[in-house]
Structures are given as structure tokens and as C-alpha cells.
Amino acid sequence: MTLIQASTSSEKTNMFDNITDITPTSSSDDELQRYLAADVEDVKDGLMWWHEQRAKFPRLSRMARDYLSIPGEVLIVLAFILGADTLFHSYNCRC
User: Where are the domains of the chain?
Assistant: First the structure.
């Protein structure tokens, strides 16, 4: 399957015309609904919980594991940098 087709007429073709529809499937909707309908659990380690639930919620667990596996140091450094910008702005302000 090619994404771009040669045009024999004077009209241009869009490379996205032949891509299949990527709307959410009913199975992903069902997965979200099942997760939201589940009872609330007391979880100590969210990353491990999502790993254990990967068969039950394959798409959600993949997204959650991607998000939860971001190192905390990155978030701390980002907060420090943003905080430093605010501090320097306040210090240099001659209001």
C-alpha cells in the first residue's frame, strides 16, 4: 500500500486520503469503561499494579507505565528551573 498515489489528472492528491480511519475502537472504549467501573483499591506501588493489570487493561496499562516510569529527577529539575526563572524575574523586577 502506498500513501501517495501519482495523479493522472490535474488535481492533486492528499497523502492522507488512503490511510485507514484511526478512530478509537469499541474495545478501547470498553477498556476505559471497565477501568472506571472497577472498585477503588489501596495501591502502594502504582507502577507494579499497572504491570500486574496489563492483561486486563492492555492499552491503559501501557500508557500508565510510560507515564509513571518517568524519573522523578526530571520533574524535580524542571520544577527547579521554572522556580529559578520566577525567582530571577522577581529579583530583577523594579516595580
Answer: 26-92
